[in-house]
Amino acid sequence: MNQAVIETLFYITEGIALISALLTVTRYNAVHALLYLIITMMAISLIFFILGASFAAALQIIIYAGAIMVLFVFVTMMLHQGDITIKQESMLFRPGRSIGATFLSIILFTETLYLLSPLAELMADTNNGQINHIGAKEIGLQLFGPYLVLVEVSALLLLTALISAFHLGRRHQEQR
Amino acid sequence: MMITEQAMLFFSLALFSIGVFGVLVRRNLIFILISIEIMLNAVAVLFVAASSYHNNSDGQIMYLLVLTLAASEAAVGLGLVIQMYRRTHTLDVDQLSSMKG
User: Fold this and answer.
1) A65 in contact with B at a CB cutoff of 8 Å?
2) How many CB atoms lie within 10 A of CB A56?
3) How high is the pLDDT of residue A176?
4) What is the DSSP letter of B57?
5) Distance between CA atoms of B30 and B27, rounded to whole angstroms?
6) A45 compared with B88, residue with greater pLDDT
7) Measured at the alpha carbon of residue A62, what is the angle toward residues A46 and A156, in degrees to the nearest 5?
8) pLDDT tens digits for A66-85?
9) Nearest alpha carbon to residue B4 among A7, A52, A15
10) Domain coverage including residue B26
């Protein structure tokens, strides 16, 4: 495919991801926010695909959009009470009062961009001018070779999360 | 390559700043968790972009680690959300101001 077409697709996807992320953090209704977040995840998956990381793109859809977001949607819908919740949320979050936070975030953004711009030039020097395709085979060889300890630690982390989620999810015990 | 590194860096930083904005502004626990997910995604994008530019699969292995971390964080965080809702019947984090021994 033409390089310019890919570039245009990339910038459109980037715009979609940023707009839907911005809509996610400003919604009153948690279910709408989660649906916008799923759009963000899918846009990021497409960006991974354009960058040549097809395995990461598949994982982004399967695990993020498929598993984690379903968990979020399930809990949100369990706790959602319709209009009462939205009314409560509009009491909690007022866009007019978030000027300070907007200002601070924009300062952080420009500061970090300014500090990291030499890094981007450094990255441009090392790039050989091609989209590098890294598939599941290379990742698997690395993962079960030099990074074997990381796999074990991840397994331990997931087990810990499972046990603590099980403990936290229990019904509150009556006081003795 | 036409997709520049600056564009990827800009995108990742913008996404991270939106996440920071969400954590600062929202008082609902579910929205704070959502904003943390956005921030984790921004970091994951930067890892995969760096991996692609250097033709090195280490960045994608770090992406897998971020994915594992996000899954465990979501599980524990949502457990805390359910427990908080059971105790206070609201998700306003400012209501969690009293301690019980």
Assistant:
1) no
2) 28
3) 45
4) T
5) 9
6) A45
7) 125
8) 999 999 999 988 888 778 87
9) A7
10) 12-90
Question: What is the C-alpha separation between B35 and A24, in angstroms, rounded?
Answer: 8
Residue A32 corresponds to which amino acid? H
- Tell me which residue has tokens 């040549």: A52
Collapsing DSSP to helix, strand or coil, B49 comes out as helix
Q: DSSP letter string over A68-123? A: IHHHHHHHHHHH--THHHHHHHHHH--GGGGHHHHHHHHHHHHHHHHHHHHHHHHH
- Mutation target for B interface from A14, A25, A42: give the one with most B CBs within 10 A: A25
Write the CA distances from A163 to A84, A113, B60, integer angstroms: 33, 40, 27
Task: Please identify every stretch of chain B with a pLDDT value under 70, giving residue numbers as ranges.
Answer: 1-2, 100-101
Where do the structural domains in chain A lie, given as residue ranges?
3-168
CB neighbours of residue B46 within 10 Å: 21
Residues of chain B numbered 39-58 and touching chain A (CB < 8 Å): 41, 44-45, 48-55, 57-58
Find the closest chain B residue to A97 by CA distance: B25
In a domain, B83, yes or no: yes
Architecture of domain A3-168: Up-down Bundle (1.20)
> B73 to chain A: nearest residue by CA?
A161
How many structural domains is chain B composed of? 1
The residue assigned the tokens 């980037």 is A14
Token pair listed for B94: 């400012």
Please give the average per-residue pLDDT across A114-137, as a whole number.
Answer: 71
B92 three-state secondary structure: strand
What type of residue sits at position B5?
E
